[in-house]
Amino acid sequence: MCGIGGIIKFSSQPIEQDELTTMHQTMQERGPDAFGTFIGNRVGFCHRRLAIIDLNPSSNQPFSILDGEIWISFNGEIYNFLELRKLLEKEGAIFNTHSDTEVICWGYKIWGIQKMLQHIDGMFAFAIFDKIKNKVFFARDRFGKKPFYVLQSNDEIVFASEIRAIWAIRKKELNLDFESLEYYFSEISSPQPKTIWKEICQIEPATFWEIDLNTNKVLLKEKYWTLQPSKNWSHSIEETIEMVENQLINAITKRTISDVPIGCFLSGGVDSGLVVSLLAQHSTERIKTFSIGLSYQKYNELPEAKLVAQRYDTDHHEIILESDIIHTLPDLVEYYGEPFADSSMIPTYYCSKALRGNVTVALSGDGGDELFGGYDDYGIAYRTDKYIQKYPNTSVRKMATLVDKLAFRFSNNRKENLGSLETYHNTNDFLKLYREIGIHPNQLDLLFNKDFKNERNNFTENYLSGIWKNNKSEDYTTTLLAASLNTRLLNDYLVKVDRASMKNSLEVRSPLLDYKLAELAFNIPNDFKFKDNQNKYLLKKLAEKHFNPHIFSQTKRGFGIPVHQWLRTDLKKYTEAHIFEGNLNKFGWFNMDYIKKVWFEHLQNKPGIDHTHTIWALLCFEIWLEKFYSK
Questions:
Q1: Where is the domain boundary, 193, 223, 253?
Q2: Residues 199, 106 share a domain
Q3: Alpha-helical segments (H) within 444-571
Q4: Within 13 A of 346's CA, how many CA atoms are on the CB side?
Q5: Per-residue pLDDT tens for 129-148?
Q6: Does the active-site annotation cover 2?
Q7: Are residues 137 and 282 in the same domain?
């Protein structure tokens, strides 16, 4: 894992070494082991290295082959590089290192960019400069695990793993993107490919760019991979579970290739428990596991995690998180580079910090919910699909729903009636993707002043509607699962883990986001994923087999912290000072009367009133403004 950066000029203006140096210094946590720069004809690359594969300095970057014909700045890991190396050697490649970096270079040289991207299996963001063709290629991995920021103007392209690296040398050219800011307050993150700055975007997942320095144009922005759901499935449920298990074992095994120590995140949930269980059973060494907990019992999953650790005799470490985060939060917000308000970034950061004290690489359970249907709204979507199938006629459906509502009133053991499914069916598409973790899109007008409203253009509604439409399938469930990969996973969860881990110079690998496992998951019928109305049925069956015989009777708990409680106690004065005495008030973008109302209602702690998400988003944004923005 590393940090990449560079500058491409569309004019004869020279590339400044000092600017490349500033960029890589900004990303030093991503690569504490080595750094370097390269300046060619109108192309400059920089790099920070976290050495994982082939620790020899000869693999440092920027890296070149064929006496400087091809240069690369690469961030990530290619899990099948040994297999590809053998194929490339048969076609004439001559390797001077044992790195996956050199495999990418020779893959590009022999196969070309498109075929090479079809072959490589990993997480990555890289830039390749072909001196002979006078072209630069950018590429990002299939799910967007690794960030890739780009500033494009008439005169140049500047790119980096971190938006801070671009900001550090081009801050005077940047303007706040109010559409992205609107999305932030609804979904606590930035809406890729947009960013908080109008002039900077992110390359989309599974996409490459081709930049021609002869014409000074971006010739191509092309997808090289998409998930294609299929309805042709002939396997039994038992066969399907075995196929998922085998593919998951393969995904875990390939992610253990490393020349440095490896550990595992371990919560009390299904996904990380499966990763640890299967790794322990297929490892010749005792594995290290790390769990984080709180004294606040509702959020403490340490007992469940400990059961897995004890069963497989792992070298287990527990971290207890306290509420003293006043000094940590500003540094964390600054490192993320864009406004970000997923409070679980804090436990993720502390757990990453503990891991980095023992290992350099960690396996996580990210992706299991999105691929196999773990969240509550996925279950609602599935039950709505079955409901529509059972009552396709609108009049019949309305009558059945009315009867069921009446029956529901006299039932003591039911949590849902057909009315909730009819409501979901009639809900706007964008609200099916809205997670209720920020300000409801329909309530955003209360937060902003008039001028700010005109800048927003109802962006969040249009953005989520567009992603729903682009992923639309024959049923709600498949559409929601696919769309979630490009919203909550891409914009929030992957960003959270990447930044929290890389701030600690820790590489995180996610077996459940193996692209072959994803292709398998999207071919499996939804009736298998939600069998017996159990969310994530297939992975739960594996968890039942390997570490928790009671998994089907347990409720899902998120990786969260008691922010709502801290805002009323430990963080009360800190929050008040920042929200009401800082830039939020000074810049005049917000309706401060509404914010005061929200704050005082939250402090009163009345039943049914909880403004945690709104206040936390405001606090994190105020800290971000102090770090990056001056009006």
A1: 223
A2: yes
A3: 444-447, 450-456, 459-470, 476-484, 494-502, 515-521, 526-529, 537-546, 563-568
A4: 22
A5: 999 999 999 999 999 999 99
A6: yes
A7: no
Residues 548 and 569 in one domain: no
Judgement on whether residues 96 and 211 belong to the same structural domain of the protein:
yes
pLDDT tens digits for 593-613? Answer: 999 999 999 999 888 888 999
Q: Are 76 and 122 in contact (CB under 8 A)?
A: yes
Distance separating alpha carbons of residues 124 and 120, to the nearest angstrom = 10
Alpha-carbon distances, residue 171 vs 179, 335, 363, 588 (angstroms):
19, 16, 35, 22
Q: Are residues 511 and 594 in the same domain?
A: no
For residues 629 and 178, give the distance between their C-alpha atoms in angstroms, rounded to a whole number: 13
Answer left, alpha or beta for residue 35, where phi above 0 means left and psi between -120 and 50 means alpha.
Answer: beta
- Distance (Å, rounded) from C-alpha 438 to C-alpha 612? 9
Q: Which of 502, 524, 553 is the last residue of a domain?
A: 553
Q: How far, in Å, CA of 472 to CA of 480, rounded? A: 8
Please check the confidence at residue 216 and state whether its pLDDT lies above 70: yes
CATH number at residue 111: 3.60.20.10
Q: Which among 45, 44, 47 has a CA at the least distance from the CA of 35?
A: 47
8 A C-beta contact, residue 208 and residue 485: no
Asked if 127 and 73 count as a contact pair (C-beta separation under 8 A), the reply is: yes
- For 276, the token pair is 């640890």
Residue 525 lies in a domain: yes
Q: Please state, in angstroms and rounded to a whole number, the distance separating the CA atoms of residues 295 and 561.
A: 10
The domain that contains 322 carries what CATH number? Answer: 3.40.50.620
Cα–Cα dist 418/534, whole Å? 18
Query: Which token pair is 285?
Result: 């060494």
Residue 324 domain boundaries: 237-369+485-553
The catalytic residue among 2, 264, 351, 620 is 2
β-bridge partners, 291: 318
